[in-house]
Design a protein that fits this description.
Radius of gyration: 17 Å
Number of helices: 2
Helix content: 10-25%
Number of strands: 8
Oligomer: single chain
Structural class: alpha+beta
Largest sheet: 5 strands, antiparallel
Strand order of the largest sheet: 1-2-3-4-5
Order of helices and strands: HEEEEEHEEE
Length: about 150
């Protein structure tokens, strides 16, 4: 059985986001979405992008809520699967936010000073590599839960 679309008002979204510790934010780039964010680690933020603006969202299937983690330069560190506007949107949104806390290492700035260490997958498995690659070739090993 397909999940049923639910209209989410901007008031519902705002109330929920404030309740879980997020504040409306300026993403630092042109954006027609409402953006909420909360601090994560040293110099990083978890962002929630929502097309719920001016009272409500788009028609069913026309949008979703996105969750990602960025540094202070707005470089993307990690993003999750979209949250569809179904009856369980609040629980699903919390699950996506929690996945950033549990599934990825805390983001850290690279010692080169120009990038962040991002999870990468190579022929020998998962590692952390600088986002300024190929200018910076610094890497670190990372253990991943099986």
């Amino acid at each position: 059985m397909a999940a049923e679309y639910q209209n989410i008002s901007s008031g519902d979204m705002e109330s929920f986001m404030v309740h879980i510790g997020f504040q409306q934010a300026n993403p630092g780039h042109p954006c027609k979405e409402t953006v909420y964010e909360a601090p994560y680690g040293d110099g990083f933020r978890i962002r929630v992008y929502s097309t719920i603006v001016r009272g409500s969202g788009r028609d069913a299937g026309g949008d979703a809520i996105r969750v990602c983690c960025v540094n202070e330069n707005n470089d993307l560190f990690h993003s999750t699967k979209r949250v569809h506007r179904t009856q369980n949107w609040r629980r699903n949104l919390l699950n996506r936010i929690d996945s950033i806390h549990t599934d990825i290492p805390k983001p850290t700035e690279c010692t080169c000073g120009n990038g962040i260490l991002l999870p990468k997958r190579g022929r020998n498995g998962v590692f952390l590599g600088c986002s300024d690659y190929p200018n910076c070739r610094i890497t670190r090993n990372v253990e991943v839960a099986q």
